[in-house]
Amino acid sequence: MKSTLLLSFSDYQPQAKALAMVCGIPHDTIQLHRFPDGESQLTLPVNLAETVIVCRSLDEPNNKLVELMLTARSLRQHGVKRIILVAPYLCYMRQDKAFHPGEVVSQTIVGHFLADLFDAVITVDSHLHRISKLSEAIPLEYAINLTATQPMADFIEAHFTNPLLLGPDGESEQWVKEIATHFGFDYAVAHKQRLGDHNVVVTLPENDYARRNIIIVDDVASTGKTLLEAAKQLTPYQPASVSVLVSHALFIDDAIEQLTNAGVKHIYSCDSIPHQTNSVSLANILAKALQDVLQQ
Ligand SMILES: O=P(O)(O)OC[C@H]1O[C@H](OP(=O)(O)OP(=O)(O)O)[C@H](O)[C@@H]1O
């Protein structure tokens, strides 16, 4: 048995291979076949290792969670001692509270499900708004929530001159402030009221937005409505440009088209979810965290 092996599915292979290369770990592929009835058939490599890292982002989560369970249980049956999940985008972290009687708190249920399968979980900019640590949702010693603020700051520094960062809601301040601090960028944070899945109201703080290159920064773009409403509020101030940068690019349905139609000039994202807007690689921050865990 080799000592360490990184496995990925075809949906995240370039990013997983890049991570394996930075870490100097061999990479192999889990073959996936979906039967006509929707069941998944998985085939693991024949040669495994004592420690196996499974690298898969958990957008479109429902099939992927079942496939992770099949993968992890099968790896254990084959004698793998340590199984680490690297999920740059972690699903179900937004349903963290029962807002109405009977509502299921998915965050902790999915968290315990992953803790039963894996020995460590590494993710990036997880949506932890009502808990302070990922280990409160995933009860593991190594439940690590990284932040992409450093590579995002480096990207902005390389592509913009004197930008103004805008967080579209109070929760985004943690990321916007940290990115701004790296290079002394100006920043502001808006207020958001969520009225429904596709309906938010964004109120901008007082600021001189005219003739500025503004970058709206957030953790995740799902319907894109949060970014869209922030961009629309900026238009009357006649900024030089409005761009967006997010950690996780879900961009459901026509989100990109709506942002473009609203005058958003550039749409950038980290590569936690494969998307046409991917501009910022997470390989280096994931590799550092993974190497730290492997040394334990
Ligand atoms: O692209 P969208 O569909 O607008 O979704 C993305 C937004 O949703 C999340 O916050 P949310 O509104 O859930 O607020 P919360 O911080 O209160 O959970 C997230 O932080 C984004 O701001």
Automatic annotation (TrEMBL):
Keyword Translocase part of the UniProt annotation: no
Q: Which Gene Ontology cellular component annotation is one that this UniProt entry carries?
A: cytoplasm
UniProt entry keywords in alphabetical sequence: Kinase, Nucleotide biosynthesis, Transferase
Taking every annotated instance into account, which residue ranges of this chain make up the domain Ribose-phosphate pyrophosphokinase N-terminal? 6-114
Molecular-function GO term, any one: magnesium ion binding
**Record flagged with keyword Transferase:** yes
Q: Which GO terms describe its biological process?
A: 5-phosphoribose 1-diphosphate biosynthetic process; purine nucleotide biosynthetic process
The Phosphoribosyltransferase domain covers 159-274
Pfam families in the record, alphabetically? Pribosyltran, Pribosyltran_N
Concerning CDD domains, the annotation shows: PRTases_typeI (cd06223)
Q: Which NCBIfam families match?
A: PRK07199.1, ribP_PPkin
Membership in a protein family: Belongs to the ribose-phosphate pyrophosphokinase family.
The identity of this protein, by name, is Ribose-phosphate pyrophosphokinase
Organism (species): Methylophaga sulfidovorans
